[in-house]
Specification:
- Strand 4 (77-81) and strand 5 form a beta hairpin.
- The chain has two domains: 2-89, no CATH class; 91-123.
- The chain is an alpha/beta fold.
- It is built from four helices and five strands; from the N terminus they run αββαβαββα.
Length: 123
Amino acid sequence: MVEQSRRLSAARLGSRVTVTALKLGSVHTNVRRQFPLWMKIAVPLLLDPFITLSADIVAASAERLLLASDFEGKSGALFTQIKRMKSAPVTGRTFDPQEGQRLWELSERLVEDALGATRCSEG
């Protein structure tokens, strides 16, 4: 997110495109159907009452982050959604340009590999 924001700014697109991230905790979705039996029992009892968010709450926060004018221009920002959506500090190696470059290159390789695998399975 920080590297992409940095690259957009360098390409003079930073004022037109905002890159942010929304970090979530546990979200109640249909993926639970894939849980092993012990998790189907434990998660609703142990996590849901304390930290699990409904998909509606998460969707509302994501929609707000995407559409609200008060988030325009906050490129490279991180937000969390626990009880409410709030700004979170982006710290440490996240700001290191060399780390950003390394992650960018790794991401490109992974996408190329995934696209290559898709092409092979289609052909």
